[in-house]
Amino acid sequence: MNEPDLRLRQALTRDPNAIPDAVSDLERVRRRAAARQSHRRVIATATVVAIVTAGVAVPLVALGHLRHSIAPAISGPCPFSFASQPRPITGTRDETLDDVAAVSSHDAWAVGIAGDELGSHGPGHFHLDRIRILHWSGASWSDVNVPQPSWTYRDEMFNQPIHISGGFLQGVSASGPNDAWAVGYGVGPIALHWNGARWSIVPTARLNGQDPSRGRVAALMGVVAVARDDAWAVGWQPSGGGEIPLVEHWDGQAWTVARLPVGARGGLTGVGGSGPNDIWAVGQVSDATGRSLLMLMLHWDGAKWTSARTPNPAGADDRLAAVAAGSPNDAWAVGATDSGPVALHWDGRRWGETAIETQPGVDELNDVAVGSGGQAWAVGDANGGASAVIVKWVDRAWRAVRVPSTVSGAFALADAGESLNGVSAARTDQIWAVGRTWIGSSSRGLIELGCTQAHRP
Predict the structure, then answer these.
(1) Nearest alpha carbon to residue 192 among 117, 99, 119
(2) Rounded to whole angstroms, how far apart are CA atoms 369 and 101?
(3) Is 84 helix (H, G, I), strand (E, B) or coil?
(4) Taking the chain, what is the end-to-end CA distance rounded to the nearest angstrom?
(5) Whole-angstrom Cα distance, residue 113 to residue 105?
(6) Beta strands in 117-254 (DSSP E)
(7) What is the DSSP string of 159-199?
(8) Can you tell me the distance from the alpha carbon of 148 to that of 145, in angstroms, rounded to the nearest whole number?
C-alpha cells in the first residue's frame, strides 16, 4: 500500500513528458478517495508518494462550477430539518471538510483542506494541499489562521534537499473551549493544538519507520480529546513493506506511542470514548492469509489496550471507519463491508450488528456521533459518493433522515454529487455534519446543521 509508485519513477527517468499522465492517474485516485472517509489511506499513497518519490508537482484538471442552494446562517433556534450552511470560500478548486467537533452551540470546529495547491514553489520546494480549520461562533463559520506544517529531507533519487509544506487534516476533537486537537498527515503525522487563543503545531512521537524518500510515511486519521492532559490519536505507521496500526497518547507534555496487542498489517481510522478509562479505536487489519481485510477494534480501559471481538461478515474487505461512545455500556462503530454499510453496537458485553434501513445504493457510513440522551447519528455516502446520507438510531434500527441537495438546476444532471465525512452531536442539541459537494473535477466544503429533538424519520 505504501510502496513508491514505480510507474511514476520509470516515467521520470525514461520520458519527462510522460510525468503529467502518470501523476494525473495518482491525482484521480486521490480525488476518488477523498469522497470516501474509510478509504482515506489511498490519499497518502497517491499524493504524498507522488511528491516525495519523484519530486514533481501534481498537475491540476480544469475547474468546474458549483451552484449551491444554501439556507441563511442559523443563529437562532435549530431548523426542523437539516439545512446547508454558508461557509467561507477559499477560491481553490478542491475543498473538503473531513471532521467536525462541537463544544457548545456557539463553539465548534471543522477541519479539512483547501486543495489544488499541489505544485512546485521553486527548485526543491513543493506544497501539498493547504490544511484548513473553520470555527463556528454561534452566528457564522469563519476560517482560522493555521500554521502550515513543513518537512525537509534528502531525496535519494536526485540527491538534493526536498522541502515540502502543507498536508491533509482528517480529525478534530475538543474537550472544552480552550483545548482542541486536529490531526492528519503530510510527509508524516500532523498534530495541531488549540489553547483558547491560537492553533500551534505540536511535535508527534518519533517513529523509526519513517522514510519519506521511499514513500514510507505515517499518518494520524482520528483524535479524541479527553482532557488537557489526556488525548489519543490513531492512524498507522510504516513497518517492513507495509503498515501497522498506530496509537499515540498526549499526557499534557508530549505525544508518545502506545503499546498495542496487534502486529498485523493494517491501520486505524477512528477513535472515541466516554471517559479516560473507556476509549475505543477502530480500523482495518489483514487476516492471517493476507488475502482478506477484517474489522479492527481496540479498547483502552485506563491501563492497557486490548483487542475486542467484532462480528466480521464473510467478506474480503470489511472495515470500520469511526467509533463513538455515550457511556461504557453504549458505543457505536460504523463502516462498510463488501455488501454495503455496517453499524455495530456495544452494550457493555459484546459488539453486535444493527439494522440499517436507508435508501438503496448506500455505500458506507463514514462517521458516527452520540448526542445528549444517548441519541446516535451517522453520516456517509451513497451511489459512489453521489449522494449524502444521514441516519438516526430510532426504534431499534438506523433510519434515513432527509438531506437537502446542494446541487441544483442543470448541474444536478451533470457528473456531480455530495458526501458527508464527519458528524458531531455532543454537548449541544445541534447536529453538525461536514463533507463536500462536487461537480466534475471541482469540489466545495459542505456543512449541514440539524437538531437532535427536531427529527422524526
Answers:
(1) 99
(2) 10
(3) strand
(4) 41
(5) 24
(6) 119-120, 125-127, 130-136, 141-143, 150-155, 160-165, 168-176, 179-185, 189-194, 199-201, 219-227, 230-239, 242-250
(7) TEEEEEE--EEEEEEEEETTEEEEEEESSSEEEEEE-SS-E
(8) 10
Q: How do strand 340-346 and strand 330-337 relate by DSSP bridges? A: antiparallel
Question: Considering the entire predicted model, what is its pTM?
Answer: 0.85
Task: Tell me which amino acid residue 158 is.
Answer: F
Amino acid identity of 336?
A
Q: Which of 300, 399, 315, 397 is nearest to 353 (CA)?
A: 397
CB 91 within 8 A of CB 143: no
Q: Is 208 exposed, middle or buried (0-12, 13-18, 19+ CB in 10 A)?
A: exposed
| DSSP designation for 94 | B
Per-residue pLDDT of the chain (457 residues; tens, 9 = 90+): 222 233 223 322 333 332 223 223 323 323 333 433 433 434 444 445 554 444 433 322 222 233 333 333 444 555 557 888 988 877 787 899 999 999 999 999 999 999 755 555 667 788 889 999 999 999 999 999 999 999 988 777 777 888 889 999 999 999 999 999 999 999 899 999 999 999 999 999 999 877 776 778 899 999 999 999 999 999 999 988 789 999 999 999 999 999 999 878 899 999 999 999 999 999 999 877 777 788 999 999 999 999 999 887 656 678 999 999 999 999 999 999 888 899 999 999 999 999 887 666 788 999 999 987 788 999 998 877 778 999 999 888 898 888 877 665 444 555 788 899 999 997 678 899 999 988 877 888 999 998 876 554 4
User: Is the alpha carbon torsion for 223, 323, 336, 291 positive or negative?
Assistant: positive
**Using an 8 Å Cβ cutoff, are 283 and 266 in contact?**
yes
Stretch (H or E) spanning 336: strand 330-337
